[in-house]
Structure formats: C-alpha cells, structure tokens
Write a structure and sequence with these properties.
The structure is a homodimer of 248-residue chains. With 248 residues, chain A is an alpha/beta fold. Chain A has a domain at 74-175: Rossmann fold. The first copy, chain A, contains 7 helices and 14 strands. Chain A has helices at 27-37, 51-61, 73-83, 122-133, 158-169, 181-190, 205-214; strands spanning 8-11, 18-19, 22-23, 40-44, 70-72, 87-91, 108-113, 137-140, 146-148, 154-156, 174-175, 198-202, 218-222, 240-242. In chain A, strand 12 (198-202), helix 7 (205-214) and strand 13 form a beta-alpha-beta unit. The two termini of chain A are 13 Å apart. The interface between A and B is medium-sized, with 30 and 30 residues.
C-alpha cells in the first residue's frame, strides 16, 4: 500500500474540506488526525481568496490550519510576476486585486486570468484580448473547468475564460496552478520530501488526481465537492477512491 | 484562371464591403459590376443583425443588394431549430432575439451561441453552461475568433465564447455558419451551381478562404477588414489575394 512510503500529504481545499460554507462531514477531525502523522500543505487553485483569506475561512469553519500550511495559485502567480519583474492586466475578483499592488512599479507584460466571476464581462475580456494582440503573454492562474458553487450547482471556472482568450489570440496560456508540475513539485519541496513521497487528495479527477500522478505523486480522489460519477469514465485511475476525506 | 469556370459568386459582408459604417473604397461599384456578370449571394456569420437588418444597412451605405441575395448564419440557425422542432437558450444581442419568437411553442433542447457582445456576461454564460450540463446541445451560429470593431480595432467574436462553453461542458459545438460545409453548399445550391463553379470572397483567411476551399469552392482573400499580414503565415494558400474587392 502506498501509505507505507508516504511522508507528506498535499490536500485540495474547496470540495474536499468544505462545500459552500459547510465543512464536509468528518473533515475537521480527519485533518487533525492526518496532521498528527504527516506534514501537510493545502494547495488550491482558488483565486477568489488570498492565502490569508483562505486560512481565515478555514479557521472560521473549525479547521486547525495555519497560513504557512497553505499554498495558493495566487501566491505562485505573484512569485512568477516578481521573477519576471512585470505587472499584469488582471482578470480576478475585486477582493484580491490589492494582493498584487507591489507589482505596480513594473511594466505590464502579462494578462493574468483567474476566477473573475462577474468581472468576466465582455468589456474586461475584450480588453485582455487586445492586450494579448499588442504583445502581452497569457498566464492562467488556474485552468479549472468548473467548481461547486454556493447554490450547490456547478459553475464555470477560470479555465473556460482562459480557453476563450486562447481561441481569440492564438496564444497558449502558461499555467501557474494545478495541474502544472512546477506547482506540485514546489509544494512537495516546501515539505522537504520528493514527489513520490507525497499523497495528493482532491475532488477534481483531472487537476488533482491525474495532475498529481503526472507529477509523480500518488493521487487520491474523494467523492465530494465537484465529483460526479461520470468522472470515473474519463480513463483516469486514481490510486485510491474515498467517499470523503473522513474515510482516509 | 479559375474565373473561366466561375458561374457564381459568394461574398462575405463585414470587412469586405464595409468596415464600421464606411464602405470599402470602390466596393459599391465592384458589386454593381460583379452583378452584371454573375449571380451572387452575400453570406455572413454576423449574428448582430437579421438578414433584413443587414440589407437595410447595406442599402443605406449605397449598395444595390436585395434581401433574397443575403444568407445569414441566423437564417440557417432558425432553419436548423425548426427542423429539430426545438427552441433554444440564446446567447445573442437583444436586437435579434425576436427573430426566433416562432420557436417558442417548442421545448428547449439547444444552447445557441452567436456574437452576443455585452450579453456575454458571466451570469448568461453560466446559465448556458448549466443548461448544457442538463442535456442541452451546444450550437455555434458562428465560430469566428474576432472581428474588426467600430473603433477599427479587433474585438472578440462568438467563437471565443463557444470555446469557453465547450471547455466547460466537454461538448463539441455543432457549427451552423461559415466555415461549415453545409452552409457553403446550401449557398451554392441557392444559386443553382455546384461548389466548384463558385468563387468565395472574404477577409477571414480561415473561415472564408480555407473554409470555402475545403467545401470545394475557390477562395479569394481581400486584404481589408480583419485581414492582418500575419494571416499569410498560417499555411493557407488563397487562390487569389486582392488589396480589396474593388480590385477583382
């Protein structure tokens, strides 16, 4: 069993720990239990919250999780832009915009697309398209297809609008979040282990499970959050399938 | 020269006859001249206007064009839905919505995407996505990447949002407008000629020129409208390239 070689755990957040504003049954206790045995990083493609906002919500819901245990695709995007000494035109929700304020001194060479929700207006998308035509490069904070929304139905996620801008511009976006290998490998490195010593737990059979596997990490699927039965017909074989994280 | 075997002409409208609200230099005279020698159909993926609205604009600009000479992707979409006895959830601009009123008696089995412009809100797109999840089929009135907007810059066109919904839903849209072969073949048939006896004139090297060629029609590119020099690096060989339709 792969758990013999496991030295650390990576865990998705939305859909695995909670849906909407409700913790998954038993998830709070499961995380406490896992943390008694393994170091852990919570890694998320959520772009509607910064890392500190994510932790605040998790703590409010009752989870014993600290800010240094969370890595978000937004954190990685800021690092990417800092490394390239560039600002960007951002398609994001208003509440995370000031997270990138420190980049304002740099010139703008990128268009950054996250889950902008109602900021995905035609006007904003077309402005991003025109920036791409003028030479900006397209960066996808995440490429998720959909997420489980507060009303318990699926809603369109960042990847759909990345796809729209790719189609319009002919560019292929550079992906920062899951399932990019760089993201998984950095998360493993932050725990001081190799990818093969990690287990990744997620509700997205493509981004979490297949993405982790392709990065050399064990991929565990939980049947909560965005999971639907049809996911099991996609030709992807999770290393383990659980009803929820409480069953680990 | 292919003009020896040409018996009829197909011609795109936006970008070939006019840009914004200005006729291309010499286009009005060129159309009059062509019509002295060949029967003609003006075929357009424009979804922001119905056929009669298109003709009205062309006549206002000074073109001698009648409604029976114009075939729009919206006309073909209505025919498609009528044949399937179905209504649809429409992503279109407000001014063409009542064009589909006669379908209201039918149940809704389709999501129809045209160039909805500011109706491409997150809310409307997400509603379409959810309809697709519940079993509706995705229909693209057009799949154009961009068009030359009134401010003389390129703007995102219907195809970008078709791409977003395809990515979200995993469905492949059924295309009604150019470059679908059915559209080209029906346009040729309406002129009583075979595809190989037709010449297609357009400013879109993919949708107009390559699309026509793949339907067995001679493809002529004009360097007006959305044309940019980079189009000639796409590995597509137009049968003829003209500075504008006035040079035919």
């Amino acid at each position: 069993m792969f758990l013999d070689t496991t030295k650390a755990v990576l865990c998705d957040i939305g859909g695995v720990l909670y849906v909407g504003n409700t913790p998954i049954d038993g998830a709070i206790e499961a995380i406490t239990k896992i943390k008694e045995h393994y170091p852990i990083r919570f890694i998320t493609n959520t772009t509607q919250k910064t890392g500190s906002q994510v932790v605040e919500k998790l703590q409010e819901l009752g989870f014993d999780i600290t800010e240094d245990e969370v890595i978000t695709a937004l954190d990685m995007t800021k690092l990417f832009l800092q490394n390239h000494q560039s600002n960007a035109e951002f398609l994001l929700t208003d509440n995370v915009m000031d997270f990138f304020d420190s980049l304002k001194e740099f010139p703008t060479h990128y268009v950054v697309v996250g889950d902008a929700q109602h900021n995905f207006s035609y006007e904003n998308l077309n402005s991003a398209f025109r920036a791409l035509l003028k030479g900006s490069q397209l960066v996808a904070v995440a490429n998720n297809r959909y997420f489980k929304d507060n009303d318990n139905e699926l809603s369109m996620d960042a990847g759909c609008f990345v796809s729209a801008l790719e189609y319009a511009s002919g560019q292929k976006a550079e992906l920062i979040g899951k399932p990019s290998k760089e993201f998984y490998h950095l998360a493993a490195a932050s725990l001081g282990v190799t990818p093969s010593e990690c287990v990744m737990i997620g509700d997205d059979i493509e981004g979490d499970v297949l993405g982790a596997q392709e990065a050399g990490i064990v991929g565990v699927l939980v049947k909560t959050g965005k999971f639907v039965d049809a996911d099991l017909q996609k030709g992807i074989a999770p290393d383990l399938i659980l009803e929820s994280i409480a069953h680990l």
